[in-house]
Amino acid sequence: MTDDLEFKPEDDRYHQLSDDPYETETNWWSFNIPERKIGCWIHAPYYPNRRTVTWRIFAWDDEGYDPARMAYFRKVEEAPMPDAPDLTDITFPGDKAGPGYSLKMIEPGMKYHLLYEDPSRGFALDFTHTGLHRPHRFPPGKPPFMQTPHFDQLGHVEGWMTLRGERIRIDGIGVRDRTWGPRGGPYAASPKVYASDMDRVKHPGGARWREIERERGRGRIQYIFGHRKDGTGFLGFARVQDGDADGWSPMNAGWIRRDGNFGSLAEGSRMRVFRSPTTGWSTHMQVELVDEHGRTMTSEGFVVSSMSEAGYGVNQLMRWDIDGGIGWGEDQDVWRGDHFIRVLDALKAVG
């Protein structure tokens, strides 16, 4: 990575890039507790030119996927936040239910402490994320991050979750990311115009639901990752719109990590997903990867538990077979509602 693309200690703070009302800067933290089939997120987009922040914390298991039935869910939208807050030591504003979570930088770019408590629900988080490597930037000029600075960082997550009053140990691998730049609104719309839905399909053929899934200009993103506890694993984005009739989609903007060494995903990396005709969500995945050093990795993943805020886009805890060992990670499957419904109708079609 060249010096101009390296992330610096000052990138632990918020940036002020423009006066665009859609300017957004995020911080995201994830981890899992496999023995309890639990996945957990903390996510906070800050809108510097609107001077507000939206944050949400949720934990899910296999007992319910929607906000009312998840193990825990709380969201605070557009809470007022003062100019230029210090992201290295901050407690996010809350609402009448209580304050938001606290984030404190311990070592620039590498180690952080997060703290949150909701006594009314018997829920709390107290953990550290210690990076296994320096923040890893996706190459600019490639989808899905054409210009926006973005990095992912694999880390050891250690601490405690309190769930319905029960104290549960956290000790495993998690991923965090940061992104800053305009998003949403006009930035979410495709500039391309298509005469018909079929004109959107780059490679027609195959199962009808797969054909609908790979329509271009629908805002589809699928992001998957899986790592063993020693950090061996992979991460990347599937370019579903460029997939073939057999269901294989190319992958990019990610990595293979083995023996502590990274390799950026190279041409030939791909994934194939199998979906439930009941929910429309992924149930099983095949991944075939190659990196810039010529190393290969083949993995299969199975869904363990799922959550969905809106009923269409979904985050899922995945169990992966990686290099002869078991790893854990996620499937983040982003949809537009009307597009997902068409795929689900095709999956459910009879006769």
TrEMBL record:
Superkingdom field: Bacteria
Protein name, per record: DUF7065 domain-containing protein
Family matches, as Pfam families: DUF7065
DUF7065 domain sequence ranges: 147-183
